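Hi everyone, sorry if this is the wrong subforum. Our group has a chain we'd like a structural model of before ordering constructs, and none of us has done structure prediction before. Sequence below.
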Amino acid sequence: MRLAALLDPLLVSADLHSESKTGAIGELMDRVLMKFPGMDRAGILSSIAEREEIENTSFGRCFAFPHARTDLVGEMHIALGVSKRGIKSPTPDGRPLHVICLMLTPRNIAQLYLQTLSAFAAVARDETNLPRILSARTPDELIRVIWDTGLTIRTHLTVRDIMHRDVVTVSPEDTLKDVANKLYRHKVSGMPVVDADGRPIGMISERHLIKAALPHYQSMVETGVTTPDVEPFDDLLKREEEIRAKDIMTTRLFLTTEDTPIVEVAAQMLFRNIRRVPVVEDGKLIGLILRRDIVSKVIRG
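Answer:
Right subforum, don't worry. Here is the predicted structure as tokens:
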């Protein structure tokens, strides 16, 4: 099914007037209520606000995808609006918001919701779409722009729908200090280790750094030794410029592709007890899927 087929001209605004993201969401919600007047406006807006508090839904590239999965709606509704002037709001890249896509879905259709969200994200990633969207003067013209992208909604929920595309990586020659700095700076708990050709060859995490300081942790626990002769973390810090990522990373990798069903990856994560799965194309890293993504995006929404 074409993505544009999900858009109703009555729920599309080619010229939002609101000057804030919250106002734009309310403006789009009013369009939904004009077509479906029996909805609980306050309850739905509260669900949207709750989701925004958990994580800012501004995608970057001038797009935002506020949404709510709630039993206050019986089917998925998409309201699309464009702000010609732009809305000042916190965004990942500092650019103003121009396109607001409001998605309201019942809790039991996570697959369609995520596939639709993924398709709209693809619209945002293609920078050639934004000028055409901003030049649209009517809802029908705006829907035509989306139609011309040729984007479709797929049948099955796949890795492509929830994976991270901007992945923080390290090289096998990076020092322990380099790794620790990247983990802290990017607020991640683990990263793929990639070679010069961009191929994942290992994974390194906070656990590996701690294990480097406590290589005999199992015997310490079993024997009850909690005060070793040498302070292990002091000793590790003395060697932080000598130890390389390749010395402490795990090479036990499970790789996947964009087209792999989410259910299959989730099962492998449980079976192998792993938290991160590199996504590859022709052997090169193109993304990363995290165990918490399955919880936050598929289960929580």
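For your construct planning: The CA atoms of residues 114 and 266 lie 16 Å apart. The chain has a mean pLDDT of 89.
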